[in-house]
Structure formats: structure tokens, C-alpha cells
Amino acid sequence: MRYLFLAIILLTLIVAGTYGYLGGTREPKVTLETTAAPLYLAGQAFHGSVRGDQFGQLFRQAKDAQGRLHGDLANLYLNDPEAAHDTIQAFIGLALADTSRPLPAGFRYRVVPAGQRVVAARLAGVSYLLSPNKLYPAAFEVIKKQQLKPRGDFYLERFGAGEESEVWVGVR
């Protein structure tokens, strides 16, 4: 019995240490802003279940193209998956500063125009595995506190170098 207690304590310390190492104790910074410049995305459109194999394949293809195109992983969701019962419309790919490079087969450009009113939540030093679960609640908390209305058709995730992550939630 005593070994079981020690094993539980050790496992708890390992989990807590891993969570801290991945940046789980950091809090996002959230602002209401209007985007000043257009954002250029290169990737592929997706419509279907988030549980499907194709959804994961698009992420892997974007990650593979990242070295060639030199951009941040970025996903633009065009509907609320909770309201659509896990069926999403999305554009999965990369945010690019340089659009002069040739795109991989199946990729195309999509422009997010300037002037988007968004609640932007940002984190630095947090693994992309943890950041969405910290960024979305923080953004929606600000939306609720400021009594804003989410658009429901604009959610952008961006995962940059150095474990910098951000989420934009479009608001009216």
C-alpha cells in the first residue's frame, strides 16, 4: 500500500513538472483590435468531421510544407464546430509573409483582409499542444465581459516560431 502511495505522488510530480515545462502555467494576453494588414494563408480547404483522417492529413501536409514555405502554422475556421456538431469548414495551412514561392501541389492562397475586428489572445513559451485550450477560453471570457458578439464564422489559430501562439475570434 505504501508503494502505491509513493507511485501516485511520483506520477503527480511528473505530470505537474511536464505541464509546467510545456508552459501550462502561463496566462494569455487578450486584446480587442482591428487587423491593420491582410494576412496571407497558403493551404487547403476542408469541410467535414474533425474526427476524420483527412483533417489530420492536412495538418501533416502543412507541417511538411512549413520548411519550404517558411511560414507559421495557421488554421482559419469558418464556422463554430460546437454549433455544427463537430463538422467544420476550415482552411488549414501556413501564414506567409512571402507569397512569391511556388506552392506545393494541392495548396492555394487565401487572404484574410485587413480591417477584421477580433479579440486576439496571445501566448509565448507555451507548447502548441496546450495553447488552444488556454487561448480560446481567455478570448471568450473577454467577449463575455465586454458584451461583444462573436461573428461565428471567423476563428484563426496561428502557431509561430519559439512557441508563440495566437487565436483571433472575429467579433461584430
Would you mind describing this structure in some detail?
The protein has 172 residues and is an alpha+beta fold. It has one domain (27-171): Multidrug-efflux Transporter 1 Regulator Bmrr, Chain A, CATH 3.20.80. The protein has helices at residues 2-21, 53-69, 131-145; strands spanning 29-34, 39-49, 72-77, 87-96, 108-112, 117-124, 150-159, 164-171. The chain has an eight-stranded antiparallel sheet with strand order 1-6-8-7-3-4-2-5, covered by helices on one side. Strand 7 (150-159) and strand 8 form a beta hairpin. The longest helix has 20 residues, at 2-21.
List keywords for this structure.
single chain; 172 residues; Multidrug-efflux Transporter 1 Regulator Bmrr, Chain A; 8 strands; 37% strand
